[in-house]
Amino acid sequence: MSLLDHTPQLTSVQAEALARDLFAIDGRATELPSERDRNFRIDSADGSYVLKVANSTELLETLEAQSMAAGLCADAAIPVQRQYRTVNGEWVAQFDGHYVRVFDYLDGTLLADVQPCSQQLRYDLGAVLGRVANALEGFDHPALHREFHWDVARTADVIAERAPSITDADRRVLVERFADRFSRDVVALLSTLPHAIIHGDANDRNVLVDAGEREQPAERFRKVSGLLDFGDAVYSVVIADAAIAAAYLTFDVEDPIGAVCDVVAAFDAQHRLTDDELAVVWNLVLARQCLSVVNAAVQTSARPDDDYLRVSEEPAWRSLARLLEINTDLARYRIRAACGREPHPNGQRIREFLAQSSPAPLLGTEWNDLRLFAVDLSVDTPLFGISEMSGTAEQGDAIMRSVVDGDADAIGLGGYGEPRLFYTSPAYASSEDPASERRTIHLGLDVWTRAGVPLHAPLAGVVHIAHDNDAPLDYGPVVVLRHTTPEGDDYFSLYGHLARETLAHVHVGQQIAQGEIFAWVGDSSVNGGWAPHAHVQVILDLLDLAHDYPGVGVPSQRNVWLGLSPDPALLLQLPEGSTPPRDRSAVQTLADRKRLLGPNLSISYDPPLRIVRGMGHTLYDDQGRSYLDAVNNVAHVGHCHPHVVRAGARQMAVLNTNTRYLHEEVLRYAERLTATLPGDLSVCFFVNSGSEANDLALRIAQAHTGRRDVIALENGYHGHTQALIDVSHYKNAGAGGSGAPEWVHTAVMPDAYRGEHRGYSRDTALAYAQDIGRCISEAEPAAFIAESMVGCGGQIVLPDGYLGDAAALVHAAGGLMIADEVQVGFGRVGPAFWGFVTQGLVPDIVSMGKPAGNGHPLAVVVTTPEIAASFANGMEYFNTFGGNPVSAAIGNAVLDVLEIEQLPQRAETVGARIVAGARELAQRHELIGDVRGLGMYIGIELVRDRQSLEPAAAEASYVIEQCKRRGVLVSTDGPLHNVLKIKPPIVWGEAEADRLIDTLDRVLSDSALGR
Length: 1011
Ligand SMILES: Cc1ncc(COP(=O)(O)O)c(C=O)c1O
Description:
The protein is of the alpha+beta class. It is built from 31 helices and 38 strands. The protein has an 8-stranded mixed β-sheet with strand order 12-13-15-22-19-18-17-20. Strands 27-33-32-31-30-28-29 form a 7-stranded mixed β-sheet, with helices on both faces. Helix 5 (169-185) packs antiparallel against helix 9 (275-302), helix 8 packs across helix 12 (328-338) and helix 29 (903-924) runs parallel beside helix 31 (990-1004). It binds pyridoxal-5'-phosphate (PLP).
């Protein structure tokens, strides 16, 4: 007879009667799922309860012991269900041979329903279970010393008894193999580990999570609000609670070991674990998954129609198959590292041994007698463009020779722990998901020298591996020597990128004496395609990876991999200072920035990014993590475009002076630039920033009209000089601002989404233009200054023809139109090239900035000859840097790239794809209120309610943080801080547009953004 045959049989009506008669709770019963018992939620006027009717095999003592364990946890302020007494003052009542109890119904979301489970939530779960371990320490009860089919310590026995119920033979073999491994590697150790009464079932349906406030997505689903069901409490190994909880967090996550690490580390912080506990935890995670599948198989065979029984079966099988592939030792090292232990238990001892050893010189000559160069190839190295490193081997070779000063006998040293970008082959990706980490952290030391140079064994060893890894960017011929310390610790030294002759010379098992020549440096035709060098790596555990042991690791596991591969400088005893110095830490950079730079500079993202390289549409942080850039419109034609960089460098090497001498470059630029503009806009003034351009534009307009007053748009931003703060409503009406002065007239923002007049029609435009009429009636204006699309206003697209309508009124009043194209100019809006063109406006003055120099400070004011003449009133216009030949060369190069790569056309098509994708998302994600944009200047406005348009600012900032985690940099803007701002370098293609939309789709599906 199975346990299931002892399940109580009762209806909801009977459950309601039991609650009323035995516990004086009058309410409606709804059945809750359960494996062995029957549970009902009872909703009464004074709250909700859970009525549990136990399986008839349950003993009263067991239930009492469970209640005692739960009580101890409650006393320790752990969120468990409170139990209620019967009307007779008993904890347990009886019904038809079953015990009946009543508990609190705890509110919260099941952990199983939280997507994704954040790292904070994993930590919190681990911490709660660590506190359970503390609360139950010293508690014991004979009823809980039982042979129980969910006790992970009994996994091998349970599999032996129950695996025959698994109908699929392959699956059965899978768990039986695990049972063998468990018996061999785990069982003996388990008996020595700390034991106690444990909760025993923190599965993701027994853990409730605090849903928090919808208005605070960053705080939602971060904390455990309930640990349910002590029904599986048992006397077992204490560590099992962490392993059981972690087992359910490994399903479908990219890094299952990482998920386990988080739970165990937080458990350990509450309840210190021993080395042996840390050693078994990974196998216990697998054990729990095996128990899930064998127990499910038994139950499925007894009740084939019961869906609940199968709930966790399929994902558990999938996960189990995947987890069984993972190297147990690697999991153990990672778990140790996560808990702040040395990843390899012998690490320190081996390092100490190496530090006091006397190795033979690797190159046969003492280091001090060689010409040594520290070679830095980290992410921000100025030495290489990535294209050069992944170019031909000869190129690499030539570059490397130039590093060591063309000196064929010089030796380059460096690379240990260095984040590098040139591991470009698919083998260095963690998965096909572009958001997943790539391996960038170099685990060995490179010794750059000539091909053919012989290598001498630093210490005696035995050839353990001799193999040709002949894939591109791999090691080519590689030799691994095994060494043993006098204390009996084995470790390995690996030498990669060798000459083929090496493999003819050595064989596995061969003894190599200290100082003996055993290998030669290979050339680029055999060594994976690199400039000749030897990669030397110390390895504490080969992890069964043999010749495929990684020489490069992912940044998130930096400490683990560097722990398993200590610094080869120890093995080689390199002289102090012969390898490149390390940067200050990111944490230190932040602290020093706060100290050294003005405090009102803002920093994006939390934690902030330390970006050290840009290329095309990608930014790289100091660990080589890449980010798709969706916000930096300054790097208009792509970060560090080689044509632009070369043009600047070339001119910088020849001449850089001011405009008091004649020079061709600036004229060429002025001619080309003005050729893109309509009407009489043909005279340039060169400046260095958008602010300078707008400041000068105002002066010119005021000089020409002899008036002072200026009209500007609500929420507009034009720059940081005093005059521009005065006209920038976004600043003067915002924090720290003191309002607009009397000469500035602020016109209503023509916001087609949330303004008084909605939509983009001509009627809307005319309605908003009336407010310009109001401003004109206040004073005769010198000018109306307006962005052609209003950035800080929330990526506002103006209603059709609004600026043209405004111009008619302003011109009629004798004023000028200043088009601020600092954000949107230079083809971002598409082939129209300038935003004002899309508005039917021919301005009198245009100010340009940001994209003009692709990051170089180049800005321009262009006006008509007539207006320029009025400005020349006798006072010289001089600008030290404006119009210098370097800036002009860069400006010309940007125009070259725009033309050659047809980027305005691309901005139009790719931008349209983003807008269409985002509008499709809006059909599935309520949070998206509006999608607007022209070309690659796009806003996605988030609202809590599409009727009231309540802004979703906290949600927007949550979205950009989560996008960042997924490797896409988006930002927020708008007076209500609820608009996602998308204005990438316009070199994006369809793939980047699709990645952005896919990322937003995933992020918007996050439970924290749900209702
Ligand atoms: C529309 C607009 N105009 C002017 C400026 C000022 O340019 P800069 O920061 O180069 O001085 C900005 C800067 O964000 C801007 O967005």
